[in-house]
Amino acid sequence: MSAEERAEIKRQVAVANRVLAELGLATGVLASLGHASMRLPSEPDKFVVKGRGYAIDALARMRPEDMVICDLDGYLVDGPPGVSQCFEVKMHSCIYRARPDVQSVVHVHPRFVVVMSVLEAPLVPMCQEGIDLVRHPLPVYPHVKTIHSEEEGQEVARLLGNQKAIILRGHGATTVGSTLAEAVMNMLFLEEQAKMNWYAYCAA
């Protein structure tokens, strides 16, 4: 892949991280929590992702030059000085390895998804936005923990299966897509369904 192509993918991933913040999925206390990634089209054994170790670590501040490149084992291949891969890189690498069809992975800590997961209330279709995501019960990673190890990453990938989203109990959610835009929109739709489910839960 040419330097120009790598630069363009880094730009798209940086924009995706900013969009997650702009949509309210990574603001306030959640400002640094989450990451979007995208597989390199010409090098499918590598992906671009937000790292960690920035002077100001916030999704809303991400720039193309801040992005890092990792391989499918989660190892850092390239990145700016002082910046390493994100803590939960294994979630990305294991999903990419298990799902050749997936071109993008998004992980954040959406509040309504989190509260519904702690209540162990399965999400059901409540509105048109994202209805296809929740027509069938979503897989749930049952441990309240960050995904650090290869084993944990593989378990998340196994539970995700062929679905487009997985809920991480008390932690957040991870969505995938055949494009970066799809993975981001899947996360937005998932949180909208969780919010509507919460409203119905409270009304009941």
List the helices and strands and how they pair.
Elements: H1 3-22, E1 34-40, E2 43-49, E3 51-52, E4 68-71, E5 76-78, E6 84-85, H2 89-98, E7 104-108, H3 111-118, E8 140-141, H4 150-160, E9 165-168, E10 172-177, H5 180-203
Parallel strand pairs: 8-9
Antiparallel strand pairs: 1-2, 1-7, 2-4, 3-6, 4-5, 7-10, 9-10
Could you state the oligomeric state of the chains shown?
Answer: single chain
Overall helicity: 25-40%
Described by strand count, sense and barrel closure, the largest sheet is:
8 strands, mixed
Shape: globular
Q: Helix/strand/pairing class, anyone?
A: alpha+beta
Distance between the termini: 54 Å
Cα radius of gyration in angstroms:
16 Å
H-E order? HEEEEEEHEHEHEEH
Strand order in space, largest sheet: 5-4-2-1-7-10-9-8
Annotation field: number of helices = 5
Would you tell me the overall average pLDDT?
96
DSSP E strands, number: 10
How much of the sequence lies in strands comes to 15-25%
Query: Low-confidence segments, ≥5 residues, pLDDT <50?
Result: none
Verbal overview:
The protein is an alpha+beta fold and 204 residues long. It has helices spanning 3-22, 89-98, 111-118, 150-160, 180-203, and strands at 34-40, 43-49, 51-52, 68-71, 76-78, 84-85, 104-108, 140-141, 165-168, 172-177. It contains 5 helices and 10 strands. It has an 8-stranded mixed beta sheet with strand order 5-4-2-1-7-10-9-8, sandwiched between helices. The termini are far apart.
